[in-house]
Specification:
Elements lengths: L10 E4 L10 E4 L8 E2 L12 E7 L7 H14 E12 L1 H10 L21 H7 L15 H11 L2 E10 L2 E9 L4
Parallel strand pairs: 1-2, 1-4, 2-3, 4-5
Antiparallel strand pairs: 5-7, 6-7
Length: 182
Amino acid sequence: MQLKTLEKTLKLNLGCGSDIKPDYVNVDKFPASAEVVQADMPKLPFEDNSADEVLLSHVLEHFGYADGELLCREILRVLKPTGYVFIEVPDMQWCLAQFLGAPEINGYTNPSFDYSTEHKWGLYAQAIWGDQHNDGLYHKWGYTAQRLLYFLHHIGFSAVEVRFVQSHGVQCLSAKAQKGAE
């Protein structure tokens, strides 16, 4: 009789903040709890070809272009062949159109925790530049659907799909990309 060893599935939730997901290794630069692994991204403390799935929800836009590219190359490195990354970011084209089309407010408004859609300096401004409540909440880069698609292909992902979704009160891009078989 032969015994088969069961390979454990490794799923990573990168930049999780307080969004702790069960069955994932939750990772953040600023851990919100003891159950979160601290990592100074864009470098990832995981072995090559070790993860089955990586979730990057509203994280990529917090990196400048060069560090975002480095992070995605690190994700490609740690994914097992045929593993998937799921990325969600604000749709910059939609956010800018909403911002430019929204009215100015009569008077000063404090943008901290202002999620109003009645004027441009609430939710639309935060979708473009981030909440800015701490150093990890600044948006440093943005993506359109076409840019995200080409970017992920440039990194080396195959079978890239990008679709439009509603999240965080704005239109976002949801990408699914696969690492090719080796």
